[in-house]
Structures are given as C-alpha cells and as structure tokens.
From TrEMBL:
<dbReference type="GO" id="GO:0005634">
    <property type="term" value="C:nucleus"/>
</dbReference>
<feature type="DNA-binding region" description="Homeobox">
    <location>
        <begin position="247"/>
        <end position="309"/>
    </location>
</feature>
<feature type="compositionally biased region" description="Gly residues">
    <location>
        <begin position="12"/>
        <end position="22"/>
    </location>
</feature>
<dbReference type="GO" id="GO:0003677">
    <property type="term" value="F:DNA binding"/>
</dbReference>
<dbReference type="InterPro" id="IPR009057">
    <property type="entry name" value="Homeodomain-like_sf"/>
</dbReference>
<feature type="domain" description="Homeobox">
    <location>
        <begin position="245"/>
        <end position="308"/>
    </location>
</feature>
<feature type="region of interest" description="Disordered">
    <location>
        <begin position="326"/>
        <end position="375"/>
    </location>
</feature>
<feature type="compositionally biased region" description="Polar residues">
    <location>
        <begin position="1"/>
        <end position="11"/>
    </location>
</feature>
<dbReference type="GO" id="GO:0000981">
    <property type="term" value="F:DNA-binding transcription factor activity, RNA polymerase II-specific"/>
</dbReference>
<keyword id="KW-0238">DNA-binding</keyword>
<dbReference type="Pfam" id="PF05920">
    <property type="entry name" value="Homeobox_KN"/>
</dbReference>
<keyword id="KW-0805">Transcription regulation</keyword>
<keyword id="KW-0539">Nucleus</keyword>
<dbReference type="InterPro" id="IPR008422">
    <property type="entry name" value="KN_HD"/>
</dbReference>
<dbReference type="InterPro" id="IPR001356">
    <property type="entry name" value="HD"/>
</dbReference>
<feature type="domain" description="PBC">
    <location>
        <begin position="52"/>
        <end position="246"/>
    </location>
</feature>
<feature type="compositionally biased region" description="Low complexity">
    <location>
        <begin position="141"/>
        <end position="154"/>
    </location>
</feature>
Amino acid sequence: MLQQQPLTGNGPSNGRGLGVSGHPGMHSLNSVHQHRSDGAEPGLDGTENGHETRRDIGDILQQIMTITDQSLDEAQAKKHALNCHRMKPALFSVLCEIKEKTGLSMRNTQEEEPQDPQLVRLDNMLLAEGVAGPEKGGGAAAAVSAATSSGGMSPDSSLEHSDYKSKLSQIRSIYHTELEKYEQACTEFTTHVMNLLREQSRTRPVTPREIERMVAIIHRKFSSIQTQLKQSTCEAVMILRSRFLDARRKRRNFSKQATEVLNEYFYSHLSNPYPSEEAKEELAKQCGITVSQVSNWFGNKRIRYKKNIGKFQEEANLYAMKTALGARQGEDSPHTPNSTGFTSDSSSPPQHNGNWPGRSSPPPSPHSDRSDNSD
DNA sequence: GATCATGATTGAGA
DNA sequence: TCTCAATCATGATC
C-alpha cells in the first residue's frame, strides 16, 4: 500500500571523512557530484566551481528556510524551483544520511502497544449487550429474561420488551452511525497525511516506516475518540438496563390468576400460613413468579390480614367456599379443580384470630406442609 | 390529584 | 435465615 519513494542514489554514507561544513553527511555531496553524468567538476575543492557549489548550497538552504514565510503561490513556485535545482539530489542524499543516523534513536520507540484493557472491557460489554457485533438481540434477550425471572410476566411485559428493544436498537443505530463516521474520518485523514508525506518525500526523505508510524499515531488518536464513544454508549445501555430491570420502579401487580392461587393457599392454610420451601417453589411455578416473591407475598398477606381481619373475612369465606367446592368436586371426578395442588386444612370457613405462632414459639414445623395437615 | 392497594425493601429480633 | 413490622414506591381507581 505504501509506495516506496524515490530514494535511489541516496544511500547511507560509507562513514569515511567529513563533509565541507564539517557535517558528517556532507561528504555525500562530494560523492554525488563525483558521479555526475554531465562530467562537470564537482567543486568543493577551493576552485571557482567549488565556490559556485557553496553558493548553490547556501541558496537552496536559504530557500528552504524561508519557504514557510511565503505565500502559498510563492511557496508553490519555490517548491518547483527547488525540485528542479541541480543541487537537489545531493541535498536529498545528505538529508537521507542524517535521517539514517537520527532515525536509530526512534526505532525502539514504536513497539506494539498492548491493547487497552479498558477498551477490551467496553468492547466485551457492547458485544454482550448486543450493541456491537451482529444484531441478534442477545443483550436485549438477556435483559428481558433477567427481568422476567425476577418478576411476574404480566400481559404488558411484552410491551416493555419491545420498548426496551426499540430503545436498545436506537442506541445501537446511533453507535454504529458514529462509529462509521469516525472510521471514515480516520481513513480520510490518514489518506490525506499519507499523500502529504508522499508529496514531502520529493524534497525530503520519508521512509515507509515513518509513514507507518504516522498512520499508527493517527489511528491511536481516533481510537481514543472511539473509546469515548464506546464509554458513553455503555453508560446509555446501563441506564436503560437499570430502568428496565429496577423492579421497584416498575412494580407490576401479579396476575389475577397468580393472586388467586396464592390466596387459595393462604386461606386454606389459614391456621398456619407458612408454606414450606417446596410449597413456595410449587406456588412460584404456578404463579410464574419467584420464590422470594412468594415469600414477600405471604409476609405481606399475614401482616395485613392480622392487622385487619374484619376486612379480609369476606375474602376468607369466599376462598374457603371455593376450596370446599373444589374438594367435593375432586371426590366426584379424577380432576381436582384445586389448582394449587396442595392439600387443604380448611374445608370450612376460616376461623383465625390472627395470632399465628411467631419466631419466639415456632409451630411444630412452620415451614412444612406436614403441620398444615395436622391441624 | 387524592386515596387505596400492593409488591418490594429494610432493620430488628429470634 | 426467616419472620415481623414499618416503610417506600408504584399501580389502580375514583
């Protein structure tokens, strides 16, 4: 890709002798002039030709030194004049030699840098969230599944999912647009700089290694901008995710069916409404909620029932009747209408004064259904 | 917007 | 670790 610039005839010095001005590279001027095909005297020997050559060198150096002070048009014209100057190959050779020497010090400065760990983290996160990489909804699906596993699947949860997905897709779209812009800008800028270096290589030696180094610098700069973009994209995803997953912010009532199942169990075990771990798991499965949600529900229910038994009496009677009806139908048919699948300890209207045994005097087995069936 | 209902959280107690 | 009790935060209803 990188074109080797015309550096022929500008090889390194053989290390012998000093140039006219005492500069170690100046002897190249001699060598170049000694091999001039036009057969002219190389000068630098104290003769008139030598004086002329010095004037030429002085002239060309002066022109180079002052070129930046001139207008663009003047500079262009001067550049052309310099390119055609008869001393240009010699000067070029000297510059090559100097560069060869000074270049040694920077050879070890461009070792391959290890990949930025922060960038790796950001990349991984964007990939996991489904923002980077192929669009497959992986991150969205993960977030959705996490949300649904921590809460009940309400009918409008699919609406939330689509909302989350559309917002994530927006973020993804913005991210890719910006990324494309950065990459395009990087490419354009790199091409521009490379062209500039090629142009400059006509008047000064520019090695391919130098061009590579410059390209690497440009890429590093653009990479840091990309890191910022990735960082802000990650933040946006995190905010979206926390909003979507924050159960407290997005509290949803359990489905009617789930509440029915829980109430049924509660009132049919009113004398000891402490479901065992297995019972909780079964209830959770039936209701499509988590075990901890079942525990929360029973905790709240016990407290609120105890606080206001009168208010819950009607509800209690209703569920007791349902349970009794279910039990009777269960005797008539092999299919039990009792959807809880648990045995009932109360086929008659609930009789409870709200004083369940507390932790201070626990029931025989407050976390086991065995006790439920014994009372 | 006020009020009630309800799921979640928190701190204390056993 | 579980439960209770208080409280918070949000949804539902009027």
